[in-house]
Write a structure and sequence with these properties.
Oligomer: single chain
Distance between the termini: 51 Å
Structural class: alpha+beta
Strand content: 15-25%
Largest sheet: 14 strands, mixed
Number of helices: 16
Number of strands: 24
Shape: globular
Amino acid sequence: MLKPHGFCIIVVQLLLAAGMDADWSVQRTPFSFNLGNRPYLQMTPPSFDPLHSDPGDTGQWPCDLYNDTKSNQKSAINGSVGLWFTEPLMPSMLKMGNQQHMTLSEVDTKHSHQTIVILEEDPAVIESATYLFERHPTTSTLLRYQRGVLHVLKGSHVLSTRYHDVILVGHGSNGANGAAQLAGYGPEELAKFVVKILSIFGHLGTLSLVSCNLGNELHFVLQLLQVLRSLSVETKLHLHNSFLSVNSDGQIMTRTGGDWRSHDNSKRVIAELDQRGNLITRSELGCAGPVFPSYKGNVLYLQTLEWPSHPQMFVPMELRKKYPSIDCLEGLTWSLFFEENDRRRAPDYVPDLDQRHLKAIWLTEPGPDENKIIYKHIVNIQDLLVEIRYNAREEVTSDLYYVLNDCIYRVYSRNLSVSLVGKFMSGDNKAEIENFRLTFNEDQRETSLQELRQGLKDTKFNDFCRQTFQYQQCNYNCERWGRYFMTAVFSASVRNFRTFSLFLMSVIGCEVGRLRGNESPLCTAFVGADHPMVTDQPWPDRLKRGFYGCTVDNFDMAPQNKQIWLDQVVAKENDLYIKAKQMMNTVDHDEQTELDIFGKVKVMNKYVFSSFMESFRGTPEGKKLKRGCNLNFHENYNQ
């Protein structure tokens, strides 16, 4: 497994021959990231390592990864018994797609172009790929892989040379079962992806996985090579066995202990299968570059937070007995959020055709470097849900930017606080820009919900939600309501998934009441003291997120102040759930209303409740449930 358990960036380098297959399209799209116009050498030697050297490095570090005359340590693993042994390095041959054989050094001396592919819409991935492109812009092409299509973002789309370094940039991770993955792909999926690339570019030379610690993931490496062989692809893998980062010069930096180094080939591992299917590995010795004690680049590593693998209840049994509707609330929450392997994100913000004149106007100048920002666009409830899940499931190390009603909100990774930082506006309207800055250029420090709702009329909360998610056109106090919404709903739901379920129920319940001519207290539940995450007890430190937020492992053993705090949270959740369910169980409830409001998200249909409860009843704890969600809500509410 990746140690420590989590995500790290993966850069996969392939040596591929040219060729094009019309069955898998390559589309050229505008490149929205300014890669700059830095000076570069006009010529690139025909033999170089695009990730570790540059044209001026010749002779600087006398270490050639591909020189078989160097001292190497070689190991082999028998795929069936895991037997390790050492043996002298043997010259290796690569079996090409045309059945010709070529040594690795022969392949290396003939390539002169690198194709870089962005596999994920993630700031760290885009930044790393961009840095790699900028290192050799005259001999590189930058692509993005999205929904089965490769889009040319920058550089030549004409593959004029026979051999190419193709670099795939994405995150490494451990799945729910602890198995290593690349950009969410397991070894079998990744192998099929590589074969699909071959359908465009032709013959595969060498496949290199440059990643944090993946060189230690021998089971992943063995599986990948085995699947590739089963698909008639023979190759060698190049990997890293340490943490790494890509600096602004496009160099791979590796870390040992607390020291960052460049050109450290000792952190690289080469792996292949022998004729019997055993895994053979070797590693370079020595050849470490200089130490950079002040290096502050991002460690391309993201930790996967705790995530359940099977249906379970998260509120302690003691509180579920006291507040019986919590079982139903947990069933709804599970049905909304649980996805074992789904890591969907909201779409990137792209102005509509009639909004192409809009530009990001920042409250303070200069604004952040827009070349390194991805704006995620929250258009509907599904976008909101997947981003809440993403922030609860992944340990996001950088601040995220969201666009809601054309306003730009910054969510700070450290504490999930939200700031209004800008807005997409017409750059020609100077008066509107000045008014925006004068009105909202206030202290954006972390503030409480009570402070954020000052100046907001609580009965307008549902109107804001309807305008935003049904009409998709907010027209009143959108900037302030947006910040409040991102704090009271988005960040609060990241901390506790049950909050999002109650938000949906209370807003729908409010709309149902209004259809009957009643202004229900549900309409202000998320603006006043009824908000389920507002308590008179201080919040405990170091709380978990998502399913595991607002709970404790052992209620009896928890400190008394934490027991009191959690009891208050669950009591408010139970009360708000019952009120909303009572309203939605009315005879004249118009189901279509809730579907319209929330973009076809069916939060109250039979499947949402039954899917979790039916699965949960198969567990030892679930078998103890007698009534499940078939509660007499009036009876329970009046107890």
